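#struct-help
A.M.: can someone run this one for me? Single chain, 273 residues.
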Amino acid sequence: MKGLGEYQDARYMKEAGTEAGTEAEMQAEALRHIDVIGMGPGSMEQMTLEARQALEQSDMIVGYTVYVELLQTMFPEKEYLTTPMRQEVDRCRMAFEEARKGKRVAMVCSGDAGVYGMSGLMLELGEEYPDCRVNVISGVTAALAGGAVLGAPLMHDFAVISLSDLLTPWEKIEKRLRCAAAGDFAVCIYNPSSKKRADYLRRACEIMMEELDGERVCGIVSQIGREGEMAEVMTLSQLKDRQVDMFTTVFIGNSQTKVIGGRMVTPRGYKIG
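D.P.: on it. Structure tokens below:
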């Protein structure tokens, strides 16, 4: 599989008008094309222009059923393939096989494709499909979109931690929570709860409260960019007893985080006045 540098060389040599450039360009264009696209957190307004353009240029859109349903009203003329959750490997192979048929394929993910998305798996599997080129297109992840709704909770160093233990042992998640608390990071938590993990956010808060005071400023944002969007600022003690779902993103401030006008703000450290 060609490296990124070879594609860049092809573009450079094309501009230089060399025969080598023409040959390299033809070789690059002969590869089947797949875009791995971060759709953003919810609304179409939060999708990047690059992502939208790639979707418009695609012949087929592949993705998790829930995400594809969001796009079908926007791009009704496209072909679609879906798989449910936990069939990610099958979904990726479907994308490669469709690309091999000559279709320009878009593999879609919520948020950013490289933040708990599909770009890593697509690039790993891409070694088995040397005739396919994988292009990663970034999107707006929930940490950024949710942070904007709350105010400015991630203005300084921060960590993003998922509480889902489907692919990561809980022991490792627990260690990361402790390290983030000890390092005084602001923390953004993805996948805080589900039907099978109803107490995981409580457990995470209890772990962090071994290091942090219960009055630490925290916030939650639900349904980011969608109908029913809701945000609330609270303390860590209050967060511990809060019921949330998979469509909620949780923010735990660092030792400097404060509430200003009802909004969650983590100062960068600028001297004011």
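A.M.: thanks! Residues 1-16 have pLDDT under 50 and may be disordered.
D.P.: also worth noting: The chain has ten helices and 13 strands.
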